[in-house]
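Narrative of activities, Objective 1.

The group set out to show that a structural description can be obtained from nothing but a protein's sequence at a throughput compatible with the screening campaign. Below is one input-output pair from the validation batch, recorded exactly as produced.
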Amino acid sequence: MTETPFKSGFVAIIGRPNVGKSTLLNRIVGEKIAIMSDKAQTTRNKIQGIYTTDNAQVVFIDTPGVHKPQNSLGDFMVKSAFSALHEADAIWFVVDASMPRGRGDDFIISRLKEVKDTPIYLLINKVDLVTSDELLDVIQSYQEDTPTWAEVFPISATEGDNVPELLGNIVESLEEGPQYFDSDQLTDHPERFVIGELIREKVLQLTRQEIPHSVAVVIDKIARESEDKIHIQASIIVERPTQKNIIIGKQGAMIKEIGTRARKDIERLMGDKVFLETWVKVEPRWRDRPQALQTLGYRKEDY
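Output recorded for this entry:
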């Protein structure tokens, strides 16, 4: 009796902001490793999610939403997204079924046409928000002036519709290869990165206007205080004193709510009780300062 060969490979997930890439990645790995919000440009770094079975391992590269850069951080994000196309054995191009094909989609498609010898899948997400006739119109709109799609998959990352079938298809298409990561590992990012992202997610959820785009989070300290309690100190970085005042809130109410929400997610991640301390610091124009970007984790070697 012959053994089933082990398959492995890398899949890049690309698309406009807010099409559901991070939601899809979290559903696949079964844990929140990529943060989610209704704000554009929520994902800033390439995040690898690892899906492992007895016979296969797929490493998914979730990329920042492709948009027109307004600063050095935006430029980093777009370069990071497109660099993933050259690392992958397959590409998932995710679009929103509830939105018409737009210039952002066309820009990504123009770059996808340059990719050679890598299968490109069209994933039409949020099908739970449209009718069957509307879905057919969307599919038709992505058949003109596009690459030849390896497959077209209508899915709902939120509801899970057609996601198991999508996973089965990609595993079947992979070639025999090694297991790159341990079976229980869900992401290549260290705990500090994921914890910082969970805190930033709460800032995105609770603030409006220019605040979400101006925020970064640095984990200053992680220390185990006892067998079942971890002490975490984090700095929330903003660009202006007025933004600092908003995040602190009246009598500290906003920063307290951010900390309370983040602590619950961090405790689920760590499996222990967490004492979370947060401070807000002002770093003027950090999104346009190369040294600040490097310090805050947005490095050129990441794209």
